[in-house]
Amino acid sequence: MSGNGGLPHRSFEDRLNEARQRQGLDTPQPVKTATGASGMGSGLRAGVELVSCEAVAGAIGWGLDRLLHTLPLFLIIFIVLGGVAGILNVWRLMPPPGDAGRDDKRVP
Amino acid sequence: MIAGEPFEIRPLEQFELHPALGAVGHAVNFTQSNLFMVAGALLTMALLVYGSRPRATVPGRWQSLAEMLYEFVHGMAVDQIGPEGKAFFPFIFTLFVFVLMGNLLGLIPFFFTYTSHIAVTGALAVFVICLATFVAIRTHGLHFFSYFLPEGAPIVLAPLIVMIEIISYLSRPVSLSMRLFANMMAGHMILVVFASFVVMLGSLGAVGALGAIIPFGINIPLIGFELLVAVLQAYVFAILTCIYLHDAVHLH
Predict the structure, then answer these.
(1) What is the predicted ipTM?
(2) Which of A40, B30, B60, B128 is most buried per CB count within 10 Å?
(3) Helix, strand, coil percent content, chain B, rounded in steps of 5
């Protein structure tokens, strides 16, 4: 069955998408993230973000412990915080499908 | 590789730096890394100067290439940062072309990938973050620190969230440098390892020589993949710089 059904230019899909956009049902995705299209590329990026946040947090925690002689208290705290920060970074660059475009003020 | 000794795979030997220009190189420690940085810069300048010389309305090949490069980076800067991006365009162009030349020149046999050293990528990343922070503080003053407490977050969790945001911000130079460095170093290490397989199999006689076709055949698409990664990583570095500058100029 031909997709156009006799209409000159726009297929059904085009008209459906236009109507959805007019109703605001498909909010356009903000093109902020870098091209992470290839699976291995974006996976490597996520891994690098996690590791680098952990590294920075570990360094801060260890440095604070050295200054205040409180090994390993700050180290533990900051490693946990580093994990959270890493996951936050990964969330920001690769939102899970279906969440992008929703007005979620909790995670900017 | 010394005759008579068993052949070892030495993937890291290619990254060692040696003085490049003879006596002058030894005196100032001008390594092959510096040599290819200079070569990349000269190649870029040649492309831009030679490319913009015709000034034809319908551009020829070199002019078209130079113009496409310029417009691509300019579009990226202005699209990501907004109208203020024009001020950062020279820096982003230099950064993009420097990383691109580093990645691409390394794929030519016997040439050196200067972006495969953490010293180079680390210095670039730290420079980018310092620039972004400096721009943010100069644009917004002390209001810059409100970046670390996103709106809509409950004020009770403020200390926790601020610390997490600071860690996330400080991890940017680390991730920026590590991404480029890891991609380049891993790519070239894999190429060397498979090439070593070719040598090892090839020395096993006729059957080995036949089997050596397999790692050789793997290296061929691997070079293609490395070409893709070279251009992509340069683009990712530049676009992330633009995103950080956008954050510095706007969302602080």
Answers:
(1) 0.71
(2) B128
(3) 80, 0, 20
